[in-house]
Amino acid sequence: MIYRFRVILDNDTKDDIFRDLEITKDSTLKDLNELILLAFKFNGIEMSSFFTVDDEWNQINEISLFSFDDSTETMDSVVLSDLLNDANKKLLYVYDFMSMWTFYVELIEEGNSIIGKKYPRIIFSNGDKPSEAPKKLFEKNNSEENEEDDFLY
Predict the structure, then answer these.
(1) DSSP states of 65-100 as a string?
(2) Structural domains in the chain?
(3) Among 18, 103, 111, 132, which lies 20 to 30 A Cα-Cα from 32?
(4) What are the pLDDT digits (tens) for 126-153?
(5) CA 87, 67, 93, 60 torsion: positive or negative?
(6) With the C-alpha atoms ordered 11, 17, 23, 25, is the resulting torsion angle positive or negative?
(7) What is the pTM of this model?
């Protein structure tokens, strides 16, 4: 059995930049990491992490490439089929924490492998990766600011 993923670059352009990927269900997040690096033509020398997310893409837990302490799982220890299911089909992926290449990773389909095809594989590409990571704007939510003010009085 395989998983089909759509991996979308978080960017500020009108054009979608994404790749559709297939990988076996018993692969690890490290295998998916390497496939994303290949699909978007990264050299793989920078750190990366996956994040479990809620329905609104808010980060919950980090799964890093390497362990820095006992509190973080590593990509090579997490099997895709143990992490992803009907209730949990989304991950956030960040490559190069200085540039913050950010991708939305969504399980779009589960299927049977095709005899004679080698996995993992890139099945569709749309758009070209820009030469630099799209800029991220971090803005404070005004409603949060107003809520804080309410507690001051």
Answers:
(1) SS-SSTTSEEGGG-BHHHH--SS--EEEEEE-TTTT
(2) 2-152 (3.10.290.30)
(3) 132
(4) 999 998 888 765 555 555 555 555 555 4
(5) positive
(6) positive
(7) 0.86
